[in-house]
Write a structure and sequence with these properties.
Blueprint (H helix, E strand, L loop, with lengths): L1 H23 L17 H23 L6 E6 L3 E6 L8 H6 L4 E5 L2 E5 L4 H14 L3
Antiparallel strand pairs: 1-2, 2-4, 3-4
Helix pairs in contact: 2-4
Length: about 140
Amino acid sequence: MTQIVVGLIFTGIWFAVFRTLILKLDLKTPGRGDEEVKLYTKADYKAKAKGDILAEEAAAFLADLGGRENIVDVTNCATRLRVTVKDDSLLAAPEVFKAHGAHGLVHNGCAIQVIIGLSVPQVRERFEDLLEHGAV
């Protein structure tokens, strides 16, 4: 019985404290601010964060491959971004590709394979967007 009484007393104290903070001191709580608050799910947050990272990787790979003027064709397989370039002398060193997130690079003349991993379809989409809309 004592625990119930103590619980009710603390409930009253917390109610009074927070009511004072919110009404008298105008403490901004979610939903009471001037700006609109949007709550994201964990999946939305991860997708947005991953999308930003993949876009940065695609832009870095495009620069490493000599820019958009040097790209002839882009395809992909399960783990590799397959690119045909005009001039393979414009390519960055394999270490540069690895620094930008690639697992490796296969270079056979003008046929280049950037080993990315299972996220290669998303990287290819962003890569093609950069080719169409201009960058690097």
